[in-house]
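Lab channel / #folding
Pinned by the channel admin:
"Please post every new chain as: sequence first, then the C-alpha cells as a reply. Keep commentary short and put observations after the output so the thread stays searchable."

First post following the new format, from NK:
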Amino acid sequence: MSGRRMTLAALAALAATTVFTVPAGATVFNQGISVHHDAHIEEDGGVILSGTYHCEQASPSGAMQIKATVEQDGTQLSINAEQPVCDGTERRWVAHAPAGVEGLPVGALAVGARLHPGHAEVTAELQEIRLSGLMPRSVDTVAQDTQDVEVHAGR
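Reply from TO:
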C-alpha cells in the first residue's frame, strides 16, 4: 500500500473512531445523568444522594424514572429519586432513603441500609419504563453515571 493510501486509511479509521466514540454519560435521544461527588447521612441515619439529569419526553407508552445505587463496604442501597421532568432542560435530582436495615450483603437492595462517613460508589440510572396497559413491559436504562463519592455526616 502506498504512503498516501496508508495515510488516507489511517485518517478514515481515526474519523470512524471519532464518529462512533460516545462520551461517558451520553445517550441516544439527548438523555443524560450525572452523580454529585458528595452524599449525606442525615441525623436519623437516612441517606441523601443527588446529581443532575436531562431527558426528552418518554415514548407515549412509557414513563421515566431515576434510580440511584450507593455501595459502601459490602452494603448496597438502591433508591428511586423523585419523578423526572423530561423537557430537555438540565435539572437536579435528589434521592432519599430513610434510616433502617443494617449490614446487608452486596447485591441486596434495601431502603434504609446503614452507611457511614467515608468513600462510596454511586451509580445513577435514568430509566424508561415501557408499559403494557398498567403493567411494566420493560425497563431500559437510557443514561448512566458511576462516581466515587464522599459520604458526609449531617446535613
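NK: The chain has one helix and eight strands.
TO: also worth noting, The two ends are 65 Å apart (CA to CA).
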